[in-house]
Fold:
Amino acid sequence: MLNALEAAALRVEEGGEIEPEYFLEAAQFVRGFADGCHHQKEEKILFTEMARYGMPVEGGPIGVMLSEHEQGREAIRAIVSFAERWAKGEPAAREETARHVLGYVALLRQHI
Structure:
């Protein structure tokens, strides 16, 4: 999914044809799978158990991962916002969508 998002964003940057709905649908997928399933399991089960066994939540790996999850959520909100504006005819929103997609891809690759 990250590779597909990256390829689509690069196509946008190169002036290629792609519909903003592609990014809106991708954001729905990410919200459902990455955030809704994977991150929720980490936050509600894994991190809770790690903390219960002594791993500090603040200032340690759990805190970093929680921060990255929130950064990802913020990026997805930005992608949706700009893709919606692009779909309504705002030309500058096209490049902003691509920029936020590439930022999200970089964040998730590093997070993984």
About this structure: The CA atoms of residues 48 and 54 lie 10 Å apart.
